[in-house]
Amino acid sequence: MKIGVIGTGISGLSIANLLTGDHEVTLFEKNVKPGGLIKCERVNDCLFHKVGGHVFNSKNKKVLDWFWSYFNRDEEFVKVTRNAKVLFNNKLLGYPIENYLYLLDKPLIKTITAELIELSKQPAISPFESKHFEDFLQRNFGKTLYEIYFKPYNEKIWRTDLTKVPLGWLEGKLPMPNLLEIIQSNILREEEKEMVHSHFYYPKENGSQFIVDRMKRNLNIKTGNTVAAITAKDGKLSVEGEEAFEALVYCGDIRQLPAYCKQMLSSNGVDVAYLEGLQANGTSNLFCETDDNNISWLYIPENFTRAHRIIYTGNFSSSNNRGSSRKTCVVEFSGKVDYEVMTEEIKKLPGNLSPLAYNYEPSSYVIQDDRTRKEIAAAKEVLKKSGIYLLGRFAEWEYYNMDKAIEAAFILSDQINKVA
């Protein structure tokens, strides 16, 4: 088939590579540079991850085998051990915080321990039987740990009422508490090894931009092409009046679907107004030089600063700091924060931070409510009857990391191949 792919983030690049060979694939990208959220640029020859700090690992063997077919893991990547910390009360604690309770002040330790023991006496339920995100956190970590850490940190990121946030969309991204493991971790003081990214792989040169540049090779990409119009004629789909495709994969923002798609959804009973009103937060990222350290991520729950985390990308590969005598990092703020405000905020943070560059991404964190998955599923069913498929964080409104985006592309490529 002739297939069009709209968007060249990791989802678009993955599905295009999976389909190329069996199909004729053309990609459309509104920006001059492919890459979506994982693109990077060099500033003074230091690498700036403009939206977060993207790394790769997966527990899915199929995803791993496919990804490494594009790269020489041993020669082109470094294996990095995750060293995440929590900045709390002017001290660096380990992550996840419940495994490092012994580092808290004694009164807090006693209160939190007593609450955890009381919670252990309650009837066991699956984490995803909780009514909402707040209920999950309080039911599993207790009131005190919720109030001092989980509530302020998550409110910083999501900037929404946690009682309105369902649990399903955060599956795989939350620490799943187990009282026995918490006790053992605090007694034995062992590092967390079960998380997907307890270690990860990172390119020696150019970070996730290296991944983009390798994956875009041999693909037909039309950049600077904002897809505002899709039309249908004789069973074929045209993008901006160009070409005729038997199928389209839309990896853009579902809130900005072209009118043809919205009309189709509306006439088939899908609540388009709801989809257009889906909530997402942007992120403001300040690229900085910092003092030497060995941290990978630093989480900042307290409200003395608007920043919620620092990603020490300069510790992922030494080439990221090539233009500086210091290490580099990205300080992340949820929402739109003015440059002048960010430069004042970093004075409150450790590391003698010095700004190099900044970026604002209007949408990066998607937020679901109880209706979201049902409405997205309905939209998918309607659109695929006309050969239009939704894929990716913003098209499916799922909080995908890189590995999960690739996994979703595998599922969709199988679906398209069955139709073909």
Description:
It is globular and about 75 Å long. Helices cover 32% and strands 24% of the residues. The termini are close together. It has a seven-stranded mixed sheet. A hairpin with a 2-residue loop joins strand 3 and strand 4 (46-49). It has 420 residues and is of the alpha/beta class. The relative contact order is 0.20. Among the domains are: 2-38 and 208-271 and 368-419, FAD/NAD(P)-binding domain (3-Layer(bba) Sandwich); 96-191, no CATH class. It has helices at residues 10-19, 61-68, 73-76, 106-120, 133-141, 143-158, 179-188, 207-215, 259-267, 272-276, 339-345, 372-384, 402-419, and strands at 2-6, 24-28, 40-43, 46-49, 77-81, 84-88, 91-94, 199-203, 220-222, 230-233, 236-239, 242-245, 247-250, 279-290, 297-299, 307-311, 327-334, 354-367, 388-390. It contains 13 helices and 19 strands. Helix 1 (10-19) runs parallel beside helix 13 and helix 5 runs antiparallel to helix 6 (143-158).
